[in-house]
Amino acid sequence: MAQVQLNNIGKTYPNGFEALHPTSFEIAEGEFTVLVGPSGCGKSTLLRMVAGLEDITSGELQIAGRVVNNVEPAERDIAMVFQNYALYPHMTVRKNIGYGLKNRGTSKQAIAQKVDEAAALLNLGDYLDRKPSQLSGGQRQRVAMGRAIVRDPALFLFDEPLSNLDAKLRNQMRIEIKALQRRLGVTSIYVTHDQVEAMTMADRIIVMNAGRIEQIGTPSEVYHNPASTFVAAFMGAPPMNLFPAKVTDGQVMLGDQPLCAAPAQGAVTAGIRPEDFTLDATGPLSMDVQIIEELGAHRLLHGTLGAHSVTVHVSNDISAATGLQRLSVRPDAVCLFNATDGKRL
Amino acid sequence: MRKLKLSTVLDHAVLIAGSLFMILPLLMLLQMTTVPDTEIIRTGPSLTIGDQLDDNFRKAMFEASGFSGENTGLSMLKNSMILGIGFAFGKIVLGMMAAYAIVYFRLRFATFAFWLIFTTLLLPLEVRILPSYEVVQWLGMLNTYQGLIIPLIASATATFFFRQFFRSVPEELVEAARIDGAGPVKFFIDILVPLSQTMIAAMFIIMFVYGWNQYLWPTMITTDEDMYTLVRGIKQIVQVLEGAVVPEFGRSNVLALVAVIPPVLVVVFFQSWFVKGLTESDK
Amino acid sequence: MKRAGFTTVSLPVLLLLPQLVIIAVFFYWPTVVALQSSFYLQDPFGFGSTFVGLQNYIDLFGSREYRRIASFTVVFSLLVTFFSLAIALVLAVKADKVLRGARTYRTLLMWVYAVAPPVAGFIAVIMFNQSWGPLTEFFGFFGHDYMVGVNFNDTAFSMILASVWKQVPVNFIFFLSGLQSIPRSVREAALIDNRSASGRFWDVTFPLLAPTGFFLLIINITYSLFDTFGIVDIVVKGEPGNNPMTLVYKVYVDGFRGNDLGGSSAQSVILMVLVLALTIFQFRLIDRRIHYT
Q1: Which of B109, B155, B190, C6 sits at a 20 to 30 Å CA gap from A24?
Q2: Which residue is closest to C4 within chain A, CA to CA?
Q3: What DSSP character marks residue A154?
């Protein structure tokens, strides 16, 4: 059974701005769904509508089989972790975690027990009597998690929870959150603008752009079969190389070289992931390598292919030099998009 | 030995001169309270410290100076306290309530209420004293504490200050509280008021001093001597000094000092809060 | 408004009500009454009033005394503002520089903030006591027979001195906090770019303090116009006579003592327009300051 169900959910502000076009999808029980997209794409609005912090102007929202459009956030059986943690600065960690339970009328004893359990789970036992200002960023993040866990909700909501941490801590917390979610088995919606977070954490990714869903799929689907040039360019670092190409004689031509068979006529956009190129002395394509980025495990070659800039990913055992290099591409690695609307062909 | 730089010496000289400019008048008042009035009439302030302070203090605090026999220093001190604390308290409570309503509620006429309240920042009480006096008279509030305090509260400084502060409180806090099941009243009491503690303290100091130091309004509104505040009583002191054969400088100066010391102590002791409140409220 | 504000309607109305009621009764009502009565001539015996249109205003602008008081107020305000700002700026710059005793200086220079204006006036009265006032003797030393309440200029000087003494601390606090909010990195950059201390002050510190200065300028003008009432009243010992006085004092004297309600109200309205202009000017400045930073 779907734990969360959105039926044509849309958001139009009083000034007429349509922040979210009517959108439908379902999230299965226990699934970890990541909403990803650039800032202003409507992902946070969508999350906040699910939380009840933002009015739903059209459509119907169900959580655990119940229509909750007009239900107060506290009654929706959800928990939320905020970007800046939103801890109450004047309360101790213990009080912060227990505040929601206290408001629900849970007994003092039960609160104490639940807070202790959550603290043990999150390694916060030693910090329960501290104020948030006395904690490090990672610890605050855990307190925010603790506050969500004790509610024992039907749905976890995460609003860019890692964006205030430094890179190292972010990697660590990413794994912790994912592991915790697996252990507790709670359905989760996670909003981020970081495609690495989306790829590594999600069971399913929803890529959003300009108030619309561009693609829904597993990380692998979204990466290897992007539904549009937007997804192709947004997911993956470095992004997919995109070249304007022409179709002649049923072949997609990049410059004067055929790439693969063409399903359509006229102009198309050809997309090739950087790692799908191979350095090949006999290859048909000729790249002018200008800069080599040494990344340890692999190298990135930046340069031009004909009139277009291109990035190529090679493993570190392949020697590379600047100047002209020959490349080849497997025909099945090429993604083709409509040249005008960017949709996948 | 460390070399003493000329510029540093100069800096200190300027600061010492400034400090003396500020403090000397107060020391002079103080000196005059320690010597007999007859000596002051002859020589004015001097460097001698006498033994009259006790006597002058008793006269100033416990003997009435007016005609009705009711405005002792003590009664004026009481009135000043009531004015200062009542004003600060009223202003903060009303200001926080109004600011909370304006910032945290989706209210159709919030913008209108905002402008209605903030227009009061444009015009000080001084430009409408006469009609204000008439209104208070009409309401039968002359010579009452309500009449003294409430019209002074009719401006938006505290509301403005708390509005600014509330707006700086992270948005997510109210959202987290809503998810935690806190309604508007709970959020205000559990979260917002504790968060505002420092701000409330700063505001209280500023407002206490402001209320305590009111002069024009108390002068108009209180004609009963037992309603006089210390600051309002200064005028009477000056008039008595003018008319007297042997002006009681010692006693007058004690009253002036008593009028100054409580707010000064508050400002000096809670300096950091006060400075924070002052410089942040006006930005 | 917060984006996720509460949607209850009755509670915020209840919260706003006390403030709105007080403002309506003690702000809007008196303001409207002042506006209205400035167009009427009050019967001196209290039997009703007659509509006279703009006559009260015409009388005021025609009155030589009113023009004299207005021009004195302008001079008074400018002098008080200039000297309080200048002295405070110098002291703040020095207090910001010294390391030893910084806290003590700060306390000594700001406590006068808490002194009520009439007390400042009272101190001036003592200082300039006719027979033995220390400052009277100081001027006597230079051959000037200082007479507060008799000599117009002497009285004016006492008022200005007391007003400046009372106002320096506020300006000091703001200037010091303005100085301390200049980022350390900016000061260090200036230290590298400019050898001369005075050059650094005029090229870097002063422009960065300018917003604070503009803001204080308005505050000080408003102060000289209104808050000096207590000083003026005490220095002239409640006897206006031929003594210098400010426009606000004149409103009080005419309306409260002289029972000229119409004239006094017209003066109030003129002051309202003046403050309104100042405040709007100030809001515009603050607006711009927000764009700066």
Answers
A1: C6
A2: A53
A3: S
Q: Which of A53, A63, A143 to mutate to test the interface with B (most CBs of B within 10 A)?
A: A53
Q: Token pair for residue B154?
A: 């009719």
Determine the pLDDT at residue B123. Answer: 82
Could you give phi then psi for residue C257, rounded to 5 degrees?
Answer: -95, -45
Nearest alpha carbon to residue B83 among B251, B222, B242:
B222
Joined tokens for residue C12: 């915020």
One-letter amino acid for residue B123 of the chain:
L
CB-based contacts of A338: which residues, under 8 Å, 6+ apart? A264, A268, A269, A344, A345
Of A82-86, B37-41, B195-199, which range is least confident? B37-41
Confidence label for C237 from pLDDT (cuts 50, 70 and 90)? confident
Q: Is A118 exposed, middle or buried (0-12, 13-18, 19+ CB in 10 A)?
A: buried
A344: DSSP letter: B
* Cβ-based contacts of A54 with chain C (< 8 Å): 3-4
**ipTM of the assembly?**
0.91
3-state secondary structure (DSSP) of residue C23: helix
Of B101, B130, B263, the CB nearest to C12: B101
pTM: 0.87
Tokens of C146: 């200082």
CA atoms within 13 A on the CB side of B11: 17
In 10 A of CB C44, how many CB atoms? 10
pLDDT band at B72 (very low <50, low <70, confident <90, very high): confident
Q: Please, which residues have CB within 8 angstroms of residue B119's CB and are 6 or more apart in sequence?
A: none
Mean pLDDT by 10 residues, chain A (345 residues): 86 90 93 94 93 92 92 90 91 94 92 93 92 92 92 92 89 91 93 93 95 94 94 91 87 82 82 91 89 90 90 86 89 88 87
Distance CA A129, CA A119 (A): 11
Q: Does A53 touch chain C (CB under 8 A)?
A: yes
- Which phi and psi angles does C250 have, rounded to 5°? -65, -40
Q: Is the peptide bond before B262 cis (omega within 30 degrees of 0)?
A: no
Q: What is the pLDDT of residue B212?
A: 96
CB-based contacts of A247-253 (< 8 A; 24+ apart in sequence) = A252/A334, A252/A336
| Nearest residue to C174 (alpha-carbon basis) of C136, C220, C235 | C220
- Give chain A's end-to-end CA distance (angstroms, integer): 33
In this model, does residue B1 exceed pLDDT 60? no
Domain boundaries, chain B: 33-281
CATH for B33-281, among 3.40.190.10, 3.40.1390.10, 1.10.3720.10, 3.40.605.10? 1.10.3720.10
